[in-house]
């Protein structure tokens, strides 16, 4: 099954809390059910994205990493 | 998670302002309303002429090594505390109020302040706004 990503956000090299702040802004432009992909290098982002997903209700579909880059796939609530 | 957060921002050094801005943006991102009360040097930092780009001033415990570390992060593109607060306002409910006593102390009027400041209030209004949530002193 192909995953349709509606929007991509490059938050690499941004320090905390900017990856989450920019994610909160980007997800506003999506409609419910659409997917947002975020790339980040901030070391706190794995726990931050999990916490942000839990508190805002936007589902964290995938949380992976490749070298220093973390990738998050979020589905808008 | 909409428990409000109140921050009394007393300090005016760039490191403590950055810490306050990061806490504010993080709270705003998870939907918590934030009320910031600017007192003394925290208010001084929000004068229009203080906010403009300037040499970083840090708390004394930073020392020279601390200053170098903070400058490296800034050179790597870290958002300034002012930009971070601006972004926090864009994603959530952030109300920044100047303490009226500190306005008198520093001989300030509202037109002297950066537009990020939403207004002037006394301590009673602050405690009313803070009554339902946590208070952080920086």
Structural overview:
The complex is a heterodimer of chains A (77) and B (138). Chain A has 77 residues and is α+β, with helices and mostly antiparallel strands. Chain A has a single domain, classed as TusA-like domain (Translation Initiation Factor IF3), CATH 3.30.110.40. Chain A is 30% helix and 36% strand. Chain A contains two helices and four strands. A four-stranded mixed β-sheet of chain A has the order 1-2-4-3, covered by helices on one side. In chain A, strand 1, helix 1 and strand 2 (35-40) form a beta-alpha-beta unit. Chain B is an alpha/beta fold. Chain B contains seven helices and five strands. Chain B has helices spanning 14-29, 40-44, 48-51, 63-75, 81-91, 100-105, 123-130; strands spanning 5-9, 34-38, 94-99, 119-121, 134-137. In chain B, strand 3, helix 6 (100-105) and strand 4 form a beta-alpha-beta unit. The radius of gyration of chain B is 15 Å and the shape is globular. The model of chain B has no long low-confidence stretch (mean pLDDT 94).
Low-pLDDT ranges of chain A: none
Q: Structural class of chain B, please?
A: alpha/beta
Q: How many runs of DSSP E, i.e. beta strands of chain A?
A: 4
- Name of the CATH homologous superfamily of chain B: DsrEFH-like
Shape descriptor of chain B: globular
Helix/strand layout:
The complex is a heterodimer of chains A (77) and B (138).
Chain A: E1 5-11, H1 18-28, E2 35-40, H2 45-56, E3 59-66, E4 69-75
Parallel strand pairs in A: 1-2
Antiparallel strand pairs in A: 2-4, 3-4
Chain B: E1 5-9, H1 14-29, E2 34-38, H2 40-44, H3 48-51, H4 63-75, H5 81-91, E3 94-99, H6 100-105, E4 119-121, H7 123-130, E5 134-137
Parallel strand pairs in B: 1-2, 1-5, 2-3, 3-4
Helix pairs in contact in B: 1-5
């Amino acid at each position: 099954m192909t995953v349709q990503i509606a929007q991509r956000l490059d938050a690499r090299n941004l320090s905390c809390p900017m990856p989450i702040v920019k994610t909160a802004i980007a997800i506003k432009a999506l409609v419910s059910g659409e997917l947002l992909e975020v790339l980040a290098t901030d070391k706190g982002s794995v726990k931050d994205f999990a916490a942000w997903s839990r508190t805002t209700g936007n589902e964290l579909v995938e949380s992976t990493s490749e070298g220093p880059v973390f990738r998050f796939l979020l589905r808008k609530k | 998670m909409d428990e409000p957060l109140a921050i009394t921002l007393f300090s005016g050094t760039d490191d403590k302002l950055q810490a306050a801005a990061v806490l504010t943006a993080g709270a705003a991102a998870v939907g918590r309303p934030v009320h910031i009360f600017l007192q003394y040097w925290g208010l001084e930092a929000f004068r229009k002429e203080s906010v403009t780009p300037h040499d970083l001033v840090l708390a004394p415990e930073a020392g020279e090594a601390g200053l170098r570390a903070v400058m490296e992060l800034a050179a790597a593109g870290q958002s300034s505390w002012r930009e971070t607060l601006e972004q926090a306002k864009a994603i959530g409910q952030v109300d920044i109020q100047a303490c009226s006593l500190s306005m008198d102390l520093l001989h300030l009027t509202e037109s002297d302040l950066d537009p990020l400041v939403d207004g002037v209030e006394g301590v009673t209004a602050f405690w009313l706004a803070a009554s339902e949530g946590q208070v952080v002193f920086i």
